[in-house]
Records
---
Amino acid sequence: MDISTTILDNEEALQNLKFQKAMQQLEDPLQIKSLKKEIAQLKTIKKEFDLGLRGNKDKK
């Protein structure tokens, strides 16, 4: 699975969680925080690959 695809999936899941929160149906509000953190980490990794700061997976 591509990083971009994972980011999009997580952003969609985050949107669903925010909707559940607005409808007061969210059981664990900490899910939003952890999903935001995961999205930020994935975006950082993607940016590092784009800038060439991270090598390919095969080079390790």
---
Amino acid sequence: MTGNGTKWVVTLLAIMALLISNSLAYCSICAALKADPWPNSAQTFLNGNSTAQALSDQSTTQQVAASNPSYVRVDPERSPSFLHVLAPVSSFLQKGTSSSKPSTYGYDVILDVSPAASEYIRGAISIPYAEFMNNGSLKPVSEVAKILGEAGISERDSVLVYGQCLPCGVDSAYVYWILKYLGHDNVKILDGGIDDWVAAKFPTETVPKVLPKVTYTPKLNPGLLATYDYVKNGKVQIVDARSFQEFGLGYIPKALNIPYDQVMDNGQLKGEADLRDLFSSLDRTLPVVVYSDTGAQAGSVWFALEALGYNALLYSWQDWMANQPSLNIVLEDIHADPNPATQGSPVKITVLFGEAKKIANTDSTATGNATNQTILTIKGCATCGFGSPQGFANINKSSGVAQLGNSGRMTAPSQAGSFTCAAMVKDSAGSNVGQVSMKQIAGDEYSGIWNANVGPGSYKVAIVVSASGITKIFDNVLEIKIVGAEKDTSKYKKVGN
């Protein structure tokens, strides 16, 4: 297929993805109910609002389901081979009375990693998984070990991890990987989470348990984390766990795109048959490197591969980009209008690029390694000369979030040719909540519209540009503040004096 033919296929797939995503509920992973308000509650918590306020008018999935007689949860079929990573709720039927640890059902620690839970498994402690992150990246090992120790977890404890159903789909699986990387041997994820726990009528509490502080001593397992040289040598299989839209903006050569939400079904890991079909293109005899922006989203795909017995390693797009050549352009100006903006309103993001005069003047906010830069020098129009500018991904006009729905797997589209520019909008936890395709206005000026259908708070913007197979990221270059929409009282008629 010619280069132009490939571009047409990719464009058609992106349009199909947009149509599919418009037909889906907001939370495709956690769509137990069509109007589950839990994602909004979680988003509000991550934006810094008080938990009490966030939960005052929200309900968790299990609370809504309990009041809905027609709600039926169908669990995927499980192979006995999954028991080394998953603990089914059915396995706890007798543990509450026969175990030497009746208060925690046979485990030393039950760990809830939900961002803002309203109820907890009896005896569970709480560490929201965002506490392990800093600006979207995993904190240093010493800090993670300190967090675990202060929560009462030692490296010798048996740990059961669970989290509530979230649209990001990364909480439990990523924390599981963190513990395994720290050398924690005895750790599992509760299959079905608290939803299945409540459905089985097991006891819950409204507040988490607090354990005495201990010392957590990590013994790193480096075999679970890939390095740049390991990925670059080309002897491994590579899976990109980001969304199809993010994949289209740049990817590691020869990567196979399997979006992280494809391994999940209603917040649970899919059954063995479905997962084997999803990974049918992978050779079980070769290592598999799974990556996403920071590695967090890749945790779900890594966990699925771990359950199937693959030799899987985690990696990050950020580390790959830090070792790549860079484009010789700088971001001269960026602004949003309006800013602050009202919740649900369109926000116009405009950027202006320029040519970097010298290597030393290259914008330090861009992801790159100054010791390994091949500079593409561009004269005159800094972004011209790459063919017709065209954005790869379109946003979902109803939600402001780039979604693909049930896309399945995609191989890499062609990266050669056009200069592409996109704005990535992230919340306070570093999660992507919006992706805007930027169009050329004139010369080096580009703009696009973000529909701010998000909770009130501050959002950071990163600009991603790509040309001739090289991608450059200008991270955290703009902050957009979103305020709550005022209620329209004009439709109410005043009664009485």
---
Amino acid sequence: MNIGDFRQNPPADRPKRTSKKYNLPDKPGIYQFKKGRQILYIGKATSLRDRVRSYFAGDLVESRGPRLIKMLAEANDLSWQETDSVLEALILESTLIKKHQPKYNAREKDDKSFNYIIITKEKWPRVLIVRGRDLNVRHRVAHISYGPFTSGKDLKIALNLIRKIFPFRDKCLPDSNKGCFNYQLGLCPGVCTGEISAKDYQKIISRLKMFFSGQSKKLRAKLKQEMMALAKKQEFEKADVLKRQLFALDHIRDVALIGARGEVIDSFQNPSSRVQVRIEAYDIAHLSGTNTVGGMVVWQDGELTPTEYRRFKIIGAKDKKVAIDDLANLAEILTRRLIHKEWPLPDVIVVDGDERQRQVAEKIFQSAGLEIKIIAVTKDRHHQMAKILGDSATIGDYHSAIVLINAEAHRYTLSFHRKLRRQMLK
């Protein structure tokens, strides 16, 4: 799809047609409108495909304003970069705006109105959000800054999410022997109570710096290395903390978890909130009926148990009509699951879809004489959780686990589908 083809008949003030074709993915990332090599505008997206299409909607003037109409009239090229999550798209957008300073980003608002994250240069560094106008205030303590970030709302959500993984100090007084409010929520590591050493706190700050610098892959590798070193020393409690941080970082890569604004991370952060229950989640993946597969993931006694995950190649997918029938595919994998008497029965089943998927699953388990709670998770067009359907008491008891396991089933099943596609191309 070329720039001009986002609408059938773009007006004269829209970008001219080019010979280049673009097939934007339905994934998070950043996009750049260009005039030749000059970058005119950089933006972030939950779905690159949907976001870029929105620039060519009929109500563009009302929703975006004449400034972006002018930018689109200048643009003759488009580039993009996928990221693993919306959160990483937010960080990358900030990094690229700072590097390239596109003229239409700069005109969007006064540079001094942009938001920045700063990490102060103190014995016990604070992590704060400040406006551009406050960055160089004389009385402000020395700091390292990250930004600019164009959306203050998105930045606050992102920082709250990261804080659940890497708790930090913002306002509390060190060694005051009185736990601050954020300490009680698990968002401060105990700087105020003296529970953490300056050395260990600096490790947290170092990890935050890596993340805010866009080095998330390097951060994951470093955490894994440190975790294994601690395990060799039999410092299992410290190793478990890093294991949870790694797990959380890996799972915020799913867009659905960003949509949940971090609520799933609570279940990693607060081990006491774990629930003794077995939950199984199922998902289907295919590309226009090819390489149709199903996946089953398991949440057992408060945590995901990858050793019990199972993959299914859809047998009925040999028939093209069946291959694209998600209800038939779901029925097949649930029926095959029940054949395995050696697998423990779940207390709750989570399926991806709406009331139709929920009823298919319910019918199969009832036919087998099993009374199991069936929950369905619906998604919006951005693949964010829209609604959870099923027994309200079950949803209330296991809400965080349901959101997490649904996202994990999607990730696991999609990875299997992509693996089969790569094998076909070899």
